[in-house]
């Protein structure tokens, strides 16, 4: 089965690996965030960020950066929108892969192979088949929230105060991790909790069915969704740290050594009591994505049942 974490690592260029210009030291307020190095000003062949923070009055996507000095321009919004669209298409493919597998299982139910297996295997197969509906019903709220997180990560390009919100390499040329405030991780988990339970059950039941495993259709690896820590780390590595997804696939090893990962997770935790300077030390991708102009409500959501009282 294709790993979801690897599938998400589709980048056309190594985001986060840009070199700091000659002189070496990045200032406190500038538009030289290494995460967006391929879009630094001075590269005439692409749409780029502002060369220095400038006040924009009519940003349509990262609206919270309007009317104040930022690194984004109206022209750069075209690039942000294109990247966001690629993320939307990615999550649609994940949903389609689940639906396709379910459809192929439905076809298998009328095949000779299904008729010939015993009662126990039929029961296991049927349980696996029935588990798809719960996962597909629950993924809408989860995936829309992942898109909100993505929108916020893209808007981080506008932030001239980026330096305190990332962990840089020793030479200052690369972003090792983005310091995501835990409130965004909690929002993601609350939105994905139901899907996580359904996905875990689905994975187990498909694994229990020998007949289901005969299918050659791609079955998504949803392990990243099985815990709060897992999905927080997954989003930090594959979205916050690689926001500018490119059109060409390149599989990368995104898993840092455990010693590095543990240190980065400690750095990403907000101070006790959410100190007043948290805004200068952490990113808030879900909050910022919800305030943006990106269209994040893409997937059908499970209807909310309203209870009335006489």
Automatic annotation (TrEMBL):
The protein's name in its UniProt record: Uncharacterized protein
Highest taxon of source: Eukaryota
Lineage: Eukaryota, Sar, Alveolata, Dinophyceae, Peridiniales
Keyword Signal set for record: yes
UniProt keyword annotations, A-Z: Signal
Residue spans of biased composition, Polar residues class: 261-271
Signal peptide region: 1-18
Disordered: annotated segments: 259-281
